[in-house]
UniProtKB/TrEMBL annotation:
One record GO biological process: riboflavin biosynthetic process
A Pfam family per the record: Hydrolase
Known cofactor(s): Mg(2+)
SUPFAM superfamilies assigned: HAD-like
Highest rank taxon of the organism: Bacteria
Alphabetic keyword roster: Hydrolase, Magnesium
Protein name: Putative hydrolase of the HAD superfamily
GO molecular-function terms, A-Z: hydrolase activity
Length: 235
């Protein structure tokens, strides 16, 4: 019997690219407004180049997107701005974080998750740094593990193993739902969990071992979960 549902967040419950673009633009505009000299010294493209360079030079923080952004801000500002660098970094990140947690759900995603929370233990497992409490769905999940909090990004098994242990569930009693074939589906399969691939664009399955279910509309998720559960109960 299925006891635990784990959900990826970005590109599973909402599209993340427009969110990050808006958040980064808001962060840069705040910096330009308060430190006009930066407008002619650092662009958003250059900021991203700095961030990628730091990720390559410091793999120990590359999985933690919050720490990576804070480190990038600190290094960029130290080279171009005088004043309270830690305070400026903190405020700039707050501007980013506020916008990062304003999401537009995929159709029926929030409603379906809310309904499922009545029957299953739900855990959020994300490589990103979304804050489910700021977003307004924290009460639907018993726990939220991120790459930053666990110390490893998916497809490393740490997040899945932590969720199973905390929920007191065996791998065959859990289903992971996510959009990424490797980071979500294959990674969860490797720890023994059932999987549902959120395939928004009806792509062909790209790997050898298929998921237990596939959805391209969130309202189909409860039915697919029930089918997996029924199949499990027959054994």
């Amino acid at each position: 019997m299925i006891k635990l549902l784990t959900f990826d967040l970005d590109n599973t419950l909402w599209s993340v690219d427009p969110i990050i673009i808006r958040a980064e633009n808001a962060m840069m505009e705040w910096l330009y407004e308060h430190y006009p000299e930066l407008r002619f010294r650092i662009s958003l493209v250059q900021f991203e180049q700095y961030k990628n360079k730091i990720a390559n030079e410091h793999p120990e923080i590359s999985h933690d997107l919050t720490e990576l952004r804070l480190t990038t801000l600190r290094q960029v500002l130290e080279g171009h701005v005088k004043g309270d660098i830690p305070g400026i970094v903190k405020k700039a990140y707050e501007v980013f974080h506020e916008q990062r947690n304003i999401v537009q759900y995929f159709p029926y995603a929030r409603e379906v998750v809310e309904d499922l929370s009545k029957d299953y233990a739900l855990y959020a497992l994300s490589n990103g740094n979304a804050d489910i409490h700021k977003i307004g769905i924290g009460h639907l999940f018993e726990e939220h593990y991120s790459a930053g909090s666990v110390g490893f990004a998916k497809p490393h098994p740490a997040m899945f193993e932590r969720a199973l242990q905390h929920a007191g569930a065996k791998p065959h009693e859990a289903i992971h739902i996510g959009d990424h074939p490797i980071q979500d589906v294959q990674a969860a399969q490797e720890v023994g969990m059932k999987t549902i691939w959120v395939n928004w664009f009806n792509h062909p399955w790209p790997l050898t071992n298929p998921p237990d279910g596939i959805i391209s509309h969130f309202e189909d998720l409860p039915q697919v979960i029930a089918k997996i559960n029924a199949s499990r109960n027959k054994r």
